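Standup notes
- DV: blocked on the single-chain target, sequence here:
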Amino acid sequence: PGAPDPLMTPDPAPAASWNRRHWLVLAVGLAVAALIRAALFPLPGLAGDMDEFATWVQGLTAEPFGQAYDRDLTFPPVMVYLWGALAVLVPAFAWATDASDPAVRIALKLLPTIADAGLVAGVAFALRGRPWWAVAGALSIALHPAVIDVSALFGQYESVYVLFGLGAYLLAIRNHSRWAVVVLALALMTKPQALPFLVPFGAWFVAREGWAGAARLAAIGAATIVVLWLPFVADGGPAGYVRSIALHQDDLFAVLSLRAWNPWWILQVVAADGAFVSDSVSIVGPVTLRVVGIVIAALLELVVFAAVLRRPTPTGLAWGLLAASLVAFMVLTTMHERYAYPALVFVVLLFPDRRAVALWAAFSLAFTLNLLAAVPPTPEVGAVLPVAGWLGIAGSVAMTAIALSTVVAVRAPVSDLEEHAL
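- DV (later): unblocked, structure below
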């Protein structure tokens, strides 16, 4: 009985028309974004990572595709498929031993840049019922300094897995659950940083499909993952990937925070003046700091799961994706500074909620400063923005407060969220 909840419909966007001004502003903004990226493409960016990516792609030109994980790749198979396409399409990879060739650098950066374009399109589509908010949301991705730096300067692949996460969201809220699960599996098999997405999506599918239906969807997702790994099974690809991840997590990067501004970074600044501290430090017996982070993260993710389960609406799912991503960044150890990237996209889906707009502004500032301080593009920037010291502590406090505020917001009824709409 009573009027149906409009947010429970497959397509929550109300009808609205776009005019020339909307398209003109969007086109000009996208043109500026394209010019900025074109100027950054030839620059070295994160030279060490770029060199490693180049050698991985070169290996795909010289050896059978199924043996890709003989080179200790630290990415799941979706990135291998994308790099395989580069190996075929860009001749320079046949002799590349690093990323010193501008053609190699540009090709490597094109992948995340194309994903950036997909994020822009997806956000505009999600907000299309409010044209000016759709334009603002799309340009907040296209022109965001952090998005530009991560993809066009650093040559990192955060936008690729987040694009799959956004696609899964758009499919799920339109009741295309099977396809949503397939695309979610693609996100998981792009980078393991997509794992927090499972929390809100799991609650959504349980609430919408029941436990039995959610189990069937999980089977579809598992089958998708198996199919993605099939070309690499005969040559021990899955085992090779696990070994590479274990090496990075338990040896190379087994520290509290890899310059990510979160509570662990505060501890490193206070205890070691910003130097890395191992997360294998024992608290009591086998309980290490890494275990403490995992336990706290699990408890907070349960709060997010319960909130989305209680109110499985598109708005609730978007808040859940935002909160789950920031909880992982805030609480887990071994976080890189760029691992909070999904929040830049999922918070925009909540426009024009006042709290979402405020969170976007606060998070954008803190996240961008964290990126610039952790990997300064010039020595002058590094001198102005030291990653440790008072700035790192202040940034970590801000990021923690932002993350906790999303956990509070995801538990609020949807009607309360809508009361704050602009």
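- Follow-up: The longest strand covers residues 282-284.
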